[in-house]
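Entry 12.
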Amino acid sequence: MDRRAVIEVIAGGLTRAVVVMLVLMAWLPAWAQRPGVAKIGVITSGSPALVDAFRQRLRELGYVEGQNVAIQVRAVTQPERFREVAAELVGHGVDVIVASGTATTRAAKEVTSTIPIVMVSVGNAVAAGFVKSLPRPGGNVTGQSMMGAETGLKGFDLLMEVVPRAKRVAALYSPEAAANVALGVLGAAAKSKEVTLQPVELDRPDDLDPALTAMGQARSDALLFFGLRFEQQIRIVEIVARNRLPAVYGTREAVDAGGLMSFGPKIPDLWRGAANYVDKILKGAKPSDLPVGQPTTFELVVNLKTAKVLGLTIPQSVLARADEVIQ
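Predicted 3D structure (tokens):
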């Protein structure tokens, strides 16, 4: 074989090697291309845009995507896929998982007992079995937990101010919130106001139509939502509007979509808090040693357009306390 033939063979081999390398680089996750890059997996049942505050806080803490951190966001609306997606992230070798919601946190905990998990927008983390206690979580889960029933109770009080003649209030909640003490506290509050509370467990948004039919037969005057996932609340706003029932939601996005009122923690602040936990974990802290926090900032949003459609007049006492009023 002459010299020219040898060079062509070598060049051909190198070309094939380069092609194979490019294919592998395209197939592998972005974080696998840079050794030393912290790998964060995020599972959320809401819009990926909700993670913006998380990314912003990480930037403030010195993390730059593509340089020292890689973030993979998985927005999943089907609960049956939470575990599958969590297992996928574990398979990619993430350093930490951020899970938004009780169901997603449970799915992540089921697939790994070693990778740190930071929970966001979770109800009673102790009752759910995610942590042993708030001060000493134990295990591989930490983050923020909305312990107690204060949020649901506040929503109930607001509903009574806006619809003072209501005698039957349906409380729709998710199965994940069943272990929360909210139902007991709400029941006692309703009884003190001579109001009948109708607890309705709602697993899927499709379950709402028959639930509303049943509530219509029971002549429910208003609705209160708690413990429901973000996308559930958004999808059922239209159904509730068709039935012309006043309702208080847990997320402001539901009010943006046409809901009457919402009261709950500021979601961006929860995600910023999650970034603080991730930062500590990436710097060597163990989840078992990081106390679980609780939301400290809440917001009340009122939609006057919806109130007008429902024939309601929002009291000035409520408007004065509102963080935002949609005209």
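Annotation: The two ends are 84 Å apart (CA to CA). The longest helix spans residues 3-27.
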